[in-house]
C-alpha cells in the first residue's frame, strides 16, 4: 500500500519496496501537484496488486532513461512522440553520456554535452544510418526537452536533488522560414498538374488547412458532399484520424495505443507499418467546411474511384480511403511528396514542401477574415491561438506594403487618432475604392480586438 504525505507545499507518495538485496526499504516520491501524487499512488497500488511493480532504482543516465520511458513515456506520449523520443535517446543520448552516473550530471556537464553534440554526426531516425552532416541546434533542443523532463521525473522519484537542465544554456537556434506560394503561383501549378490525385491533395490541403497525414487518413464516411449540403453551403469534412508510418517496435511497446486500423505490410521483413490513428490532441478533431468548388471536385473524384472499384472487383481492397492507392491501399506520404517534387521540377516552380500549402491556407484565411484567429484556429486544429499568431501569420510582400500605407493613413495622417473612434465615413481616404474601404474597416476591427495584440507585433516586425 502507498500513502500521501504533505511536506511544505509538496506531496510525497510513500511506499515500501523490496531491494535487490532482499531488504525492505521505504521510498518517497515528491510531486508539486496533488492530482499527480494521487495518480502515482493509484499506479503503485495497482502494480503491487498484480505483481508488476518495480521501484525506480537508477545509478546511470541509461538506467534512468529506461525507467523514464517505461513509467512515463508509455503512459504520456502519443505514438509519434514515443517513436521520435526513443530514437533521440538511442542515437544521441545513450552513446555519449548514457554511462554517466546521475550524481555526476551537472549543468556544466550538460552544456558541454550540447556543444559536443553539435559536432556529432546526425542519424536518420527511421533507419539509424549516418547522414554525413552534423546535428542541428534544433535537434539539440529536442534532446534538451527529453533530458529536462527525465531529470524532472528523477527529482520526483528522489533519485536526484535537482534538475541540471533547468539553467543549461542551449545553442543559438534560428527557425528556418518556410517558403509558400502566392495565390497566382498556386493556381498556375494546379493548371499544369496532370496528376488528379496530387491536384486533389493540393486543393484539400489549401482549402481546409490540412496536414498531409490528416489528408491521407480521410475516409468517405467523414465527408459530407451531398447535393443538398453543397447547395446549402454545409459541405464539410470531419477530421478525426491521421495516417502515419510507424516503427513496429514502438507500436508493440505502446500496445497499439490510439491505433484505429493497422494496415498489412507488403514485406515481412519491413520494420515499419502504416496505421490510422487518433490525433495527438483533441483540438485536432474538427469539422471543416468545404468551398463549393472543392466539394464538387470531391464528388467527381469519388465517382471516378467508384468506377475503379467496380472494374477491379475483388482485386480492390476497400478501406474507404479518399486518397487511396490504385488497389485501395493507403497512399504513402513519400508518394505525394515525390509527385509534388516532380511537378515543381517539370514546370520550374518555386521550391516548397507539401506542408507549405497548410501554411498558405492559414495565411490567406487570416488575410481574408481580417485576422479572426479563432475562426482560423477552428480549421487548422491548433491547440492554442498563440500558435497561429506566432507560426502562421505570414505576410506577403504586397500586403506588407499595403499594411504600411494603412498604418500611415490611420495613425500619421490622423495625428494619432484611434481608428475605432473615427466615424465610419472617415475610415477611408477621399475617393477611396470599395476595396480600400473594406480593407480599412477590416484593419479597424483587427486593431480594436485585444486578442490581436500578438499578431500586430508580428506584422510590425515585417514592416
TrEMBL record:
Domain Core-binding (CB): 59-155
Pfam families xrefs: Phage_int_SAM_3, Phage_integrase
UniProt keywords, alphabetically: DNA integration, DNA recombination, DNA-binding
Gene Ontology annotations of biological process type: DNA integration; DNA recombination
Signal peptide location: none
Domain Tyr recombinase: 176-406
GO terms for MF: DNA binding
InterPro entries: CB (IPR044068), DNA_brk_join_enz (IPR011010), Integrase-like_cat_sf (IPR013762), Integrase_catalytic (IPR002104), Integrase_recombinase_N (IPR010998), Integrase_SAM-like_N (IPR004107), Tyrosine_recombinase_XerCD (IPR050090)
Family per record: Belongs to the 'phage' integrase family.
Function comment: Site-specific tyrosine recombinase, which acts by catalyzing the cutting and rejoining of the recombining DNA molecules.
Descriptive protein name: Site-specific recombinase XerD
Amino acid at each position: 500500500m502507498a500513502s500521501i504525505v504533505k511536506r511544505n507545499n509538496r506531496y510525497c507518495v510513500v511506499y515500501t519496496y523490496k531491494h535487490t538485496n532482499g531488504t525492505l526499504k521505504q521510498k518517497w516520491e515528491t510531486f508539486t501537484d496533488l492530482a499527480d501524487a494521487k495518480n502515482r499512488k493509484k499506479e503503485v497500488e495497482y502494480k503491487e496488486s498484480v505483481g508488476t511493480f518495480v521501484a525506480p532504482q537508477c545509478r546511470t543516465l541509461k538506467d534512468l532513461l529506461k525507467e523514464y520511458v517505461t513509467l512515463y513515456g508509455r503512459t504520456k506520449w502519443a505514438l509519434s512522440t514515443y517513436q521520435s523520443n526513443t530514437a533521440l535517446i538511442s542515437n544521441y543520448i545513450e552513446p555519449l553520456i548514457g554511462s554517466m552516473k546521475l550524481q555526476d550530471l551537472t549543468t556544466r556537464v550538460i552544456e558541454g554535452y550540447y556543444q559536443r553534440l553539435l559536432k556529432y554526426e546526425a542519424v536518420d531516425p527511421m533507419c539509424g544510418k549516418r547522414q554525413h552532416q552534423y546535428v542541428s541546434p534544433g535537434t539539440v533542443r529536442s534532446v534538451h526537452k527529453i533530458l529536462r523532463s527525465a531529470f524532472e521525473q528523477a527529482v520526483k522519484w528522489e533519485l536526484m536533488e535537482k534538475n541540471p537542465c533547468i539553467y543549461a544554456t542551449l545553442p543559438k537556434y534560428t527557425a528556418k522560414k518556410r517558403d509558400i506560394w502566392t495565390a497566382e503561383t498556386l493556381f498556375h501549378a494546379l493548371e499544369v498538374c496532370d496528376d488528379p490525385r496530387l491536384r486533389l491533395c493540393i486543393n484539400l490541403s489549401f482549402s481546409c488547412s490540412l496536414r498531409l497525414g490528416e489528408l491521407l487518413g480521410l475516409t468517405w464516411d467523414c465527408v459530407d458532399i451531398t447535393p443538398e449540403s453543397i447547395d446549402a453551403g454545409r459541405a464539410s469534412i470531419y477530421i478525426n484520424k491521421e495516417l502515419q508510418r510507424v516503427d513496429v517496435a514502438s507500436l508493440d511497446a505502446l500496445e497499439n495505443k490510439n491505433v484505429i486500423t493497422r494496415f498489412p505490410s507488403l514485406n515481412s521483413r519491413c520494420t515499419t507499418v502504416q496505421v490510422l490513428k487518433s490525433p495527438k490532441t483533441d483540438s485536432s478533431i474538427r469539422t471543416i467546411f468545404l468551398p463549393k468548388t472543392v466539394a464538387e471536385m470531391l464528388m467527381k473524384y469519388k465517382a471516378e474511384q467508384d468506377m475503379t472499384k467496380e472494374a477491379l472487383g475483388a482485386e480492390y481492397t476497400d478501406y474507404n480511403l479518399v486518397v487511396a492507392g490504385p488497389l485501395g491501399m493507403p497512399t504513402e506520404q513519400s508518394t505525394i511528396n515525390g509527385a509534388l517534387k516532380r511537378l515543381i521540377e517539370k514546370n520550374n516552380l518555386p521550391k516548397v514542401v507539401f506542408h507549405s500549402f497548410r501554411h498558405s491556407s492559414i495565411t490567406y484565411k487570416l488575410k481574408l477574415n481580417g485576422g479572426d484567429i479563432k475562426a482560423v484556429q477552428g480549421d487548422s486544429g491548433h491547440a492554442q491561438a498563440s500558435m497561429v499568431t506566432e507560426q502562421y501569420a505570414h505576410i506577403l510582400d504586397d500586403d506588407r506594403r499595403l499594411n504600411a500605407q494603412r498604418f500611415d493613413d490611420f495613425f500619421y495622417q490622423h495625428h494619432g487618432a484611434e481608428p475605432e473612434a473615427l466615424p465610419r465615413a472617415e475610415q477611408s481616404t477621399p475617393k477611396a475604392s470599395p476595396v480600400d474601404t473594406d480593407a480599412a474597416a477590416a484593419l479597424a476591427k483587427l486593431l480594436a480586438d485585444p486578442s490581436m495584440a500578438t499578431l500586430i507585433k508580428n506584422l510590425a516586425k515585417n514592416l
